[in-house]
Known about the structure:
Two copies of one chain form a homodimer.
Chain A (H helix, E strand, L loop, with lengths): L1 E4 L5 H6 L12 H10 L8 E6 L6 E8 L5 E7 L15 H16 L7 E5 L4 E5 L5 E2 H7 L6 H15 L7 H10 L3 H10 L18 H8 L2 H16 L3 E3 L8 E3 L4 E3 L6 E3 L1 H18 L4 H26 L10 H26 L5 H4 L4 H21 L6 H12 L1
Antiparallel strand pairs in A: 1-2, 2-3, 3-4, 4-6, 5-6, 7-9, 8-11, 9-10
Helix pairs in contact in A: 5-11, 10-11, 10-12, 11-15, 12-14, 14-15
Keywords (chains A, B): Amino-acid biosynthesis, ATP-binding, Kinase, Methionine biosynthesis, Nucleotide-binding, Transferase
InterPro entries (chains A, B): Aminoglycoside_PTrfase, Kinase-like_dom_sf, Methylthioribose_kinase
Protein name (chains A, B): Methylthioribose kinase
Amino acid sequence: MQILKASKPTGGMEKMTLFSSKEYQPLTESLAVTLAVKMRIFSENAVLSCSEIGDGNLNLVFRVTDTVTRQGIIIKQALPYAKVVGESWPLTLKRAKIEADALKIFGKIAPEYVPVVHFTDDVFAITVMDDLSHLSIARTGLIRGEKYPLLSKHLGEYLAKTLFFTSDFGVNQSEKKELQRQFINPELCKITEDLIFTDPFIDSPTNSFEPELRSAVESIWKDAELIFHVALLKKSFLTEGEALLHGDLHTGSVFANATETKVIDPEFAFYGPGGFDIGQVFANLLFQALANEEKIHEIQEHLETFWNVFVDQYSELWNTENQEPLSYAPGFFDAVIQKFFQDALGFAGCELIRRTIGLAHVADLDSIQDIDKRLLVKRKTIDLGKLLIKSKKEIHSIDDFIKVVVQTLV
Amino acid sequence: MQILKASKPTGGMEKMTLFSSKEYQPLTESLAVTLAVKMRIFSENAVLSCSEIGDGNLNLVFRVTDTVTRQGIIIKQALPYAKVVGESWPLTLKRAKIEADALKIFGKIAPEYVPVVHFTDDVFAITVMDDLSHLSIARTGLIRGEKYPLLSKHLGEYLAKTLFFTSDFGVNQSEKKELQRQFINPELCKITEDLIFTDPFIDSPTNSFEPELRSAVESIWKDAELIFHVALLKKSFLTEGEALLHGDLHTGSVFANATETKVIDPEFAFYGPGGFDIGQVFANLLFQALANEEKIHEIQEHLETFWNVFVDQYSELWNTENQEPLSYAPGFFDAVIQKFFQDALGFAGCELIRRTIGLAHVADLDSIQDIDKRLLVKRKTIDLGKLLIKSKKEIHSIDDFIKVVVQTLV
């Protein structure tokens, strides 16, 4: 932790300031404070403290705090590589711009659920935004047993608004195309294409699973019907630009407490099928029920609330804000919602499987200490994933979906 | 017609040359010749003639010819407005760049079916390309009763190659996204969205039809099931970036003779559903059979050849050039082809209807002099259009399709 006085920069400091360099460099705690000072976010004589609090996977995250008022900001900087596989996996810094631009757009559409962006710099891949340290990462909190009674309602509203107002129904169809151009995001999409839709379904060296699961995993690779459906879901992800997606909307991208919910980290944002974001929420809520049978009712309520709020809100926007002249066509709304739902089930199935046997796991499952229980839960997760992918067209409602989940759990 | 000697430009000419101006100006025949001279396409002492040969709708088209060798080139320049509705409908000049870029890409993929581009200038919205005056516009030729025995085979090959090699199956998936960015084409897409998918299905002032057709047209506007399907087709057009489409592949965009076929005018190019291009070909062949019952066998053969060649070629490319790791999934190829086919039937239906009652008609129908026959043909065209849109999922093969067409005709 670095502590510095927020006094007016001296000539000497000016020279060493961040933006005297024209080339990207990773920030240090000291440089992060200098940046905060230059931005005059804090009062002139504030004494600031700074810590790097990121999980260090793809980004540096500095929290700069006024040591007296305790008010703070977050300075997030993209790293030019993914640490998860060492420095050998270079990653475009452009994702910081995608993330900042997406935060601004989503923030305009659903300000109650998105942190305010104060400043961005494309060269340094920096986004300065609200400090959310009074909230917890939803995944971590849920694993700790915290309750977020409004989480699902908030996420339903967030997605109804963002998926509607960035689609051809909610925005001028020409403007939507310019947004689509702005959010062409090949490098981050490739991570999803590989790690969610491809590698878990073939014998790829990126996969990672307990040796005891090998036969279950091999049965995935040999399941022609499953691979067929995954191929179609991948095609949908590759081609269907329905709305500006968050693109990585798992519970680790959500900050929450009992009353507040903020969606962060949209660096995977791109124009894709709306059901992908919905499916990520489905799946990442499901991990909690899979890992803890006693949570089934809590998660069931979350799933129902999330979906029902989403449909209600989307329906209201459809009826009041629609820009599509043919939107009045009888049955059109239902067809759009049904597609979201079926897509979401399929994408949720892919997420369940890839978080169990692919490269990037979730703590909900991996933190289960008892090896027998963990293996049992993971087998159930795989089974539920396969079922959702293959049977998505036979699951017609959120009630059907809950029934399928409960049947898998018992 | 302007005749000029292709001698080396004098100092005086240099001053007045086209590109001494930095701003767009419409070419004259004289300026077109100056440009040809500057490009040194012709030998130094050639005597050149020049005529403006465009239909004057959206573009100026100059043919510059060596009066001795008869060799020529085409200089096409976009106009900043659409003449079809007067100068009041401004149109982006960027479409010249879209067209030139698309010609280059399609020319690389299917050189036998695309004119060579020699020169482009974005500011002046100019494309210089091969002169195709030894060929006829296929629509005009077909109306005159000319036979193009290879037209359908060539179009099948052209579309198999262009739809495959610009899709996620035929090109690196990151490169495809950059192409998609390059071909975001809001203004030209809006013309299609309005004139094909919207206006004909509502009581829009852009519609144009014989008063005798009013009750048939009103039955379209009141047909809830039809509008529902059109809304879904429009959504597909708006969201599904399967491949780089020509975007306006009617028989007026095709030059042909007995042995050769060239596809021109891809200024509507964008990433959309492959079935749209296929459907435009279906529909524009169908106009010929609708207008002339005695041509049903000729057109039936064209439809069968076009589709079967398309499937054969696409299948070969799928099996030999596929870049999608999951493409081996049993049933995936069939699902992709089936989607192309059903989409194409629906899009063909929209084209049949809009060319009958919308803003832009086709000479195949409008040139029928006998008013009773013309009305009968137009009613059949509307009926076939409605049937294809509503029943596309029940038409499973090209044979089924032909049967439906024949039933409508008799």
